[in-house]
Q: What sequence folds into this?
């Protein structure tokens, strides 16, 4: 498993629930004492153990933790850099959604060996059906949280739901109700120094 | 001109041209800018009506200063820059248009894209939808983040390696170097052909301290002995504990055996002073064997160490508490 994934889980737990919770989870999952390195590889079992330990420590389902992880990746100030990279995907939320099929390619441009799911986007009138295949287990739930947070970021009002699994792929439905419902968070092509 | 475009002549309005090529300038036959795409206007200001060769400086190819020379480049890449600050670098190519000597110059930012976007506050809508500019900005930013992360990882690994190396070279009880570090220093001195002195010191009556007062007292005495040896030598000397109560000191640059003997005697005298451990007083002494690298035509580490060892035993047999030159 790519260290970025484990590192994301580590930062999510620490930033959201505090260092004590992270230390408990790390000890239960037998994680490296000094934490995960984003640019190293770890066995897939480590990520599984991490998620199980987090679910036990927080007394929450793994699914809800994964979804919150997705939200955290976009909305927490510590992840401003990742949010910026995502916002390069489109000028509006609708534009972003239509560029979702490019997302794996974009991710690989940055980190060539990251295991990113394959996305298929199907326009069904007022609803977009996003099928998410491959990638790490639970990737669809992370995507769910990430899309909800991004809709906020763009100032769009959208109903985004996990509509279940289809032949091993997660299906996410998106109904875009209002493109400019709230104020979008600022994004400029040039990073602010 | 030939080509399919001329088989079906096309009349295209300026607004369509602006959308197709937000970064173009149309030049009249006299070199005056007749029109400019919206992104060029955003970057260069109100330039319509001004001479092209005043607004832009052509840097390569050299010697292009009029319309005839520009049209003769016939689609070759030209490198140019805004004449006014921030002198944004551009690349482009010119295509002659019409029969009367006008031209269209298509421009792009090339590798300076990120600076231009920052300097001119450009947004997604300043680029044609087919332009890969935004992808390039994304890539610059993403690769920058990954490179930063890798740099930090390398620094952490380097720090960990340094710490591990230090640990592998250190005697944990006294903080002195260990045998491995001594051998490395000795090899370095020999390889560099630097003269040095080697002093082998063995504590006397240390075993009695251990046997009567216990290991804690023994450890305390060893730590004190290490401190005395460090205090009695220079910063660049190597003081190593190579066994229970055995020490080796390397003194680079010393060629005067008499001076080295005096150093040894001073250390031994200090070691003979009483060492307090709780309510007990420990008394030890030390014997030393000294060899000078300059006494050897071709100094070898093993030979120096065994000769110093032999000199040390001469000190022991001679009544302890003394130094012998090997």
A:
């Amino acid at each position: 498993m790519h260290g970025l994934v484990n590192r994301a889980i580590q930062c999510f737990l620490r930033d959201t629930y505090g260092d004590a919770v992270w230390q408990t989870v790390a000890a239960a999952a037998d994680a490296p004492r000094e934490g995960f390195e984003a640019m190293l590889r770890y066995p897939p079992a480590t990520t599984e153990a991490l998620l199980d330990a987090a679910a036990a420590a927080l007394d929450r389902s793994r699914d809800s933790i994964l979804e919150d992880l997705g939200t955290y990746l976009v909305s927490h100030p510590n992840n401003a850099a990742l949010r910026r990279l995502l916002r390069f995907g489109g000028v509006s939320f609708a534009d972003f959604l239509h560029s979702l099929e490019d997302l794996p390619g974009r991710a690989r441009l940055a980190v060539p060996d990251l295991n990113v799911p394959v996305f298929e986007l199907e326009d069904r009138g007022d609803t977009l059906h996003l099928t998410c295949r491959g990638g790490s287990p639970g990737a669809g739930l992370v995507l769910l949280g990430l899309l909800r947070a991004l809709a906020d970021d763009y100032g769009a009002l959208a109903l985004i739901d996990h509509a279940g699994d289809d032949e091993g792929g997660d299906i996410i439905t998106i109904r875009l109700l209002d493109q400019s419902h709230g104020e979008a968070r600022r994004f400029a092509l040039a990073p602010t120094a | 001109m030939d080509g399919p475009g001329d088989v079906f002549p096309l009349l295209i309005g300026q607004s369509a041209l602006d959308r197709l090529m937000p970064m173009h300038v149309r030049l009249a036959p006299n070199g005056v800018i007749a029109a400019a795409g919206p992104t060029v206007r955003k970057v260069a200001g109100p330039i319509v009506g001004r001479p092209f060769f005043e607004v832009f400086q052509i840097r390569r190819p050299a010697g292009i200063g009029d319309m005839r020379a520009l049209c003769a480049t016939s689609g070759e890449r030209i490198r140019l820059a805004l004449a006014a600050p921030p002198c944004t670098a551009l690349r482009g190519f010119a295509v002659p248009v019409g029969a009367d000597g006008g031209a269209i110059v298509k421009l792009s930012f090339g590798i300076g894209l990120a600076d231009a976007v920052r300097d001119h506050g450009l947004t997604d809508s300043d680029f044609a939808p087919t332009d890969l500019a935004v992808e390039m900005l994304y890539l610059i930013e993403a690769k920058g983040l990954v490179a930063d992360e890798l740099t930090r990882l390398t620094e952490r690994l380097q720090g960990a390696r340094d710490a591990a190396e230090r640990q592998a070279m250190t005697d944990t009880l006294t903080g002195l170097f260990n045998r491995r570090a001594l051998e490395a220093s000795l090899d370095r001195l020999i390889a560099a052909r630097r003269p040095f002195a080697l002093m082998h010191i063995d504590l006397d009556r240390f075993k009695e301290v251990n046997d009567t007062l216990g290991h804690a007292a023994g450890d305390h005495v060893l730590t004190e002995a290490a401190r005395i040896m460090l205090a009695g030598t220079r910063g660049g000397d190597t003081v190593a504990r190579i066994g229970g109560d055995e020490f080796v000191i390397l003194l680079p640059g010393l060629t005067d055996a008499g001076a080295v003997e005096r150093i040894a005697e001073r250390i031994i005298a200090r070691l003979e002073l009483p060492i307090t451990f709780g309510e007990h007083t420990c008394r030890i002494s030390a014997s030393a064997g000294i060899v000078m690298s300059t006494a050897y035509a071709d100094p070898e580490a093993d030979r120096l160490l065994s000769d110093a060892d032999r000199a040390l035993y001469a000190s022991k047999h001679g009544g302890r508490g003394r130094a012998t030159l090997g």
